[in-house]
Amino acid sequence: MRILLVEDDAMIGEAVSTALKDAAYAVDWVQDGKTALATLDSAEHQVVLLDLGLPGHDGLDVLKRLRQAGRDLPVIIITARDGVDDRVRGLDLGADDYLVKPFDVNELLARMRAIIRRQSGQSSPILSNGYVDLDPATREATCSGVTVLMSAREFALLHSLLLRPGQILTRAELEEQIYGWNEEVESNAIDFLIHGVRRKLGAGVIKNVRGSGWRVGTAP
């Protein structure tokens, strides 16, 4: 999943960005409100992690403009402002959640997983197409009674496909979900990841649609 991190503190931004990448998220990190608004207009993200005390445009202004534009992109505010009035204002402006610094990264990841489930219409924490079950909390996949641990990027690829069972995703779409802005992507990277998933779970788990892309099947 592709995440936009809006955080002007270099130390916090680096720590959160690294933790998200370790948890198999593609992360784009910007450090001011103006760049955040421009990025939201030009790129596709699944969740925004938004600090409030930003140069250029305050985080609440970024949130307000995002909602005024009709965007329902999930937003989690991450800020040192712990006053009740700040939390109420942020939630009333359309934030989906509010997390006060300092916070535990595992709690942030759990809140992100909950929001992503709601956004995709999933009630269960386990993603499944009827053949493969994927646990986002542990990165474990189960198929035909066998449970294996996926690498971070194998998980990211399988997660993207299982969110849209039956839908074909192109190479470019999968790369966008798996890799951040500054990460070099080799031409065969997706093929390599698909080979790894198939080796662990079986050749039929991910289906190639010649000339179009890849998909996972749906249960009858």
Strand content: 15-25%
- Rg of Cα set: 18 Å
**Secondary-structure element series:** EHEHEHEHEHEEEEHHHEE
User: What structural class is derived from the secondary structure elements?
Assistant: alpha/beta
Secondary-structure blueprint:
Layout: E1 2-6, H1 10-22, E2 26-30, H2 33-42, E3 47-50, H3 59-68, E4 75-79, H4 84-92, E5 97-100, H5 105-120, E6 127-128, E7 132-135, E8 140-143, E9 146-149, H6 152-162, H7 171-178, H8 189-201, E10 207-209, E11 213-215
Parallel strand pairs: 1-2, 1-3, 3-4, 4-5
Antiparallel strand pairs: 6-7, 7-8, 8-9, 10-11
Helix pairs in contact: 2-3, 6-8
Fold and architecture overview:
The protein is of the alpha/beta class. The chain contains 8 helices and 11 strands. The longest helix is centred in the middle third of the chain and has 16 residues, at 105-120. The two termini are 27 Å apart. The model has no long low-confidence stretch (mean pLDDT 89).
Spell out the key features of this protein.
220 residues; alpha/beta; five-stranded parallel β-sheet; four-stranded antiparallel β-sheet; 8 helices; elongated
